[in-house]
Design a protein that fits this description.
alpha+beta, 5 helices, elongated
Length: 146
């Protein structure tokens, strides 16, 4: 057998250290762990087919457990109030990106200044108040119909 096939697989430095995994009792799938690539504790949480992973930015285990519990409460608060938890896929983030892109297009002469201003006003006054709290993926026919 070739030598490369007989070696055991090498664990990546960002994989959780098996001995550090600790599930936080009473908080569903909330788990803290360490990895070789960082001196800090990390947290992960599974819900609705999504995995949320964050660095807790603390090296002390007791502080990490408290920070993980706070993150859990924040996640639940965002879910109950239908607020986006991530900062990259919310409607508001995308809308701000569109405003920035339209301003650049207007500066290049690809879009009239008046059109850019009207679109920005419509977005801020009509769309943001209703859709601003949603994740893009969560906007469906029923939400648009409302």
């Amino acid at each position: 057998m070739p030598k490369s096939l007989t070696k055991s697989p090498v664990r990546h430095r960002t994989m959780p250290i098996a001995g550090s995994l600790q599930k936080i009792s009473g908080f569903g799938t909330l788990t803290i762990y360490k990895m070789e690539a960082s001196p800090f504790w990390y947290v992960r949480y599974y819900e609705d087919g999504k995995i949320i992973r964050r660095s807790l930015k603390v090296a002390d285990k007791k502080v990490a457990i408290a920070a993980a519990k706070k993150l859990f409460v924040d996640i639940k608060h965002h879910q109950m109030n239908k607020l986006p938890f991530t900062k990259t896929s919310g409607f508001e983030v995308c809308a701000r990106g569109l405003l920035k892109e339209n301003a650049a297009r207007a500066a290049r002469g690809e879009l009239s200044e008046q059109k850019q201003q009207l679109d920005a006003a419509r977005l801020r006054s009509d769309l943001m108040p209703h859709f601003g709290k949603y994740e893009i993926a969560d906007i469906n026919y029923a939400i648009i119909s409302d």
